[in-house]
Amino acid sequence: MPDAHPKHPTIPASAGVGLKPVHYETILSERPDIGWFEVHAENYMGAGGPPHRYLEKIRASYPLSIHGVGLSLGGDEPPDPDHMARLCRLVDRYEPGLVSEHLAWSRHDGSFLNDLLPIPYTRERLARLCEHVDRLQSALKRTVAIENPSTYVAFDAEDMSETDFLSTLTQRTGCALLLDVNNVYVSAVNHGWDAASYIAAFPMESVAEIHLAGHAPDTDDFGAPLLIDAHDRAVADPVWRLFNDVLSRTGPRPTLIEWDNDVPDWSVLYDEAVRANALLAEALGTDVKAMSHAG
Amino acid sequence: MPDELQSAFAAALCDPDLPPPAPVRSSGKRRFDVYRNNRAVALIDVLADIFPVVQRLVGEEFFRAAARIFIDTDPPRDPVLLTYGAGFGDFLDDFEPAATVPYLGDVACLEWARRDAYHGPDAHSVTIDTLADFPADRLGQAQLTLLPTLHLLRSRFPVGSIWAGVEGVDMKRGEDVAVLRPDMRVETTVLTPGAYGFLSALQDGAPLGAAAQAAAEDSAEFDLAANLQGVFALGAVIGITDRC
Question: How many domains does chain A fold into?
Answer without folding.
Answer: 1
